[in-house]
């Protein structure tokens, strides 16, 4: 059953930093569906791209897998001989992910690992790595190391599918993109108050880079090429190849 995200509906005197604990986990699938434009199309594209790179006998990693929605939506196009590994630092998210996989009769070989990516990226024999709205939560200090470790754990010609919120270099465009994004959230039933309180909770927790900064990060840390495959205002999907 999908629980409705009402976390920021009531006015709070003090807004705590956003986290991925029990309260968020319970409503997370609804939160993503109403807060990420074209979420299901992005998931379909991830499956389509991943199926071109997935190799039998290797692994696909989803870093920041949350409730394993991505594994469920990319399962069909990926060969059965590929193992799925989900990594997340939230035990609550992983528990919900495990329940969803069991409920849907997911029969592929998989593992879910609880790991803080700020402390290291546990990757080996990977043909595909997915990072869907997770790098933006990694502390900037560690991002270079995280990308370098992903590249080093990927097999040659393997890929990283990276989706992030990004900033524009131009402040007018930036403001416009953010306004259009908040309009999208309003169309999906979030009030001005909910949007404002969530923005405050995410300040300093979600730190987006410019698209050019992410590109440099990839090209200077082990990837030979990358390009954008999705863009909706400040939402951006990048495919990087080792
Ligand atoms: C926005 S969610 C990702 C959504 C998910 N990839 C999807 O498409 O459904 C970010 C996830 O990253 C996880 N996360 C944040 N910081 C992390 C870290 N340092 N190490 C591991 N996971 C982290 C959170 O627990 C959360 O589940």
Overview of the structural elements:
By secondary structure, the chain is an alpha/beta fold. The chain has one domain (22-241): Vaccinia Virus protein VP39 (Rossmann fold, 3-Layer(aba) Sandwich). The chain has eight helices and eight strands, in the order H-H-E-H-E-H-E-E-H-E-H-H-E-H-E-E. Strand 7 and strand 8 form a beta hairpin. The longest helix is centred in the last third of the chain and has 17 residues, at 171-187. The model has no long low-confidence stretch (mean pLDDT 95). S-adenosylmethionine binds next to helix 3. S-adenosylmethionine (SAM) binds next to helix 3.
Give the number of DSSP strands. 8
- CATH architecture level-2 label: 3-Layer(aba) Sandwich
- The first-level CATH class is given as Alpha Beta
In CATH, the topology is named: Rossmann fold
pLDDT averaged over residues:
95
Strand content: 15-25%
Helix content: 40-55%
What order do the helices and strands come in, and which of them pair?
Elements: H1 22-35, H2 39-53, E1 59-63, H3 69-74, E2 83-88, H4 91-103, E3 110-114, E4 126-132, H5 140-153, E5 154-167, H6 171-187, H7 192-202, E6 209-210, H8 211-219, E7 225-232, E8 235-241
Parallel strand pairs: 1-2, 1-4, 2-3, 4-5, 5-6
Antiparallel strand pairs: 5-8, 7-8
Bound molecules: S-adenosylmethionine.
Main features:
242 residues; alpha/beta; Rossmann fold; 8 strands; 41% helix; globular; binds S-adenosylmethionine
Entry summary:
By secondary structure, the chain is an alpha/beta fold. It has helices at residues 22-35, 39-53, 69-74, 91-103, 140-153, 171-187, 192-202, 211-219; strands at 59-63, 83-88, 110-114, 126-132, 154-167, 209-210, 225-232, 235-241. Strands 1, 2, 3, 4, 5, 6, 7 and 8 form an eight-stranded mixed beta sheet that branches.
């Amino acid at each position: 059953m999908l629980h409705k995200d009402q976390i920021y509906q009531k006015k709070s005197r003090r807004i705590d930093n956003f986290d991925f604990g029990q309260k968020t986990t319970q409503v997370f699938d609804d939160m993503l569906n109403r807060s990420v434009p074209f979420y299901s199309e992005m998931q379909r594209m991830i499956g389509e791209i991943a199926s071109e790179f997935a190799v039998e006998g290797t692994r696909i990693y989803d870093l920041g897998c949350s409730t394993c929605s991505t594994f469920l939506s990319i399962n069909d196009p990926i060969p059965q001989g590929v193992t799925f590994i989900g990594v997340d630092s939230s035990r609550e998210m992983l528990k919900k992910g495990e329940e969803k996989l069991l409920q849907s009769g997911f029969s592929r070989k998989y593992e879910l690992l609880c790991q803080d990516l700020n402390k290291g990226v546990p990757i080996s024999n990977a043909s595909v790595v997915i990072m869907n709205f997770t790098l933006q939560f990694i502390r900037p200090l560690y991002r270079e190391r995280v990308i370098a470790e992903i590249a080093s754990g990927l097999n040659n010609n393997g890929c990283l599918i990276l989706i992030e919120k990004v900033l524009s270099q131009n402040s007018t465009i930036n403001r416009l993109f953010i306004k259009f994004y908040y309009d999208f959230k309003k169309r999906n039933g979030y009030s001005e108050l909910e949007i404002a309180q969530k923005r405050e909770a995410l300040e300093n927790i979600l730190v987006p880079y410019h698209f050019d900064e992410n590109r440099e990060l990839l090209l200077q840390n082990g990837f030979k090429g990358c390009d954008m495959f999705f863009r909706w205002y400040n939402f951006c999907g990048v495919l990087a190849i080792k």
